[in-house]
Amino acid sequence: MIEGASIRAAVPVSDAVDRREHGGGAPVPRGLRVLDTASLVGLEARAWGLGLSQRLDPEWVRATAAPDGVHYLWPALWHDLSHRPDVPRHLRCELLISLRAGERLKSLLDVLPDDFAPLPVLASREEVMEAGRRWENATSVREWLEAEGVRGEA
Q1: Does the CA dihedral 90-24-28-37 come out positive or negative?
Q2: Helix, coil or strand: residue 22
Q3: pTM of structure
Q4: 50: number of Cβ within 10 Å
Q5: What does 86-147 look like in DSSP terms, one character per residue?
Q6: pLDDT, tens digit, for every residue of 49-103?
Q7: Which residues lie across from 29 on neighbouring strands?
Q8: N or C, which end of the chain is more exposed by having fewer CB within 10 Å?
Q9: Using the 8-state DSSP alphabet, how is residue 23 labeled?
Q10: Burial, 20: exposed, middle or buried (Cβ in 10 Å; 0-12, 13-18, 19+)?
């Protein structure tokens, strides 16, 4: 959840989820991250390659996201795949994607800490609040695909 907004992660709590800390007690990072389309495609490709639970097909993102779009990541919680010890603990983030047609979609994306840390933080409270309003008004990827008559493409 971002500070000052009413965004809530739509993630069920399970035994595999730790909302409080990472490894040696580090809290979930705070702050809204902003990224360009190339960075978003790279993060999706990394999550796809690792088989992380929350990710979109990077080719779908490349074809659908605005090439010069601004996209946002809100870190929500730490996530483990206890059945796959080869996959490191990672952040489950809420994602707001800007599309070529000007629409915005919301989704989730699992991101490794080393990939998340260098992403720029959006510092302006006004910009953070505006991103929160955009999130609240956005359609989920699933709803958008159903409305477009597409199934399972993302």
Answers
A1: negative
A2: strand
A3: 0.80
A4: 17
A5: TSPPEEEEEEEEEBTTS-EEEEEEEE-HHHHTTSPB---HHHHHHHHHHHHHPEEHHHHHHH
A6: 998 889 999 999 999 999 999 999 999 999 887 888 887 889 999 999 999 989 9
A7: none
A8: N
A9: T
A10: exposed
> Which pairs count as long-range contacts for 112-116, CB under 8 Å and 24+ apart, including other chains?
112/46, 112/50, 112/88, 113/22, 113/88, 113/89, 115/43, 115/46, 116/29, 116/33, 116/73, 116/75, 116/91
Closest CA relative to residue 133, chosen from 106, 93, 100: 106
Kindly state the tokens that stand for 39: 């960075």
Token code pair at residue 135: 């999130």
Q: Is 76 in a helix, a strand, or coil?
A: strand
Distance CA 61, CA 57 (A): 6
Phi-psi region of 153 (alpha: psi -120 to 50; beta: other; left: phi over 0): alpha
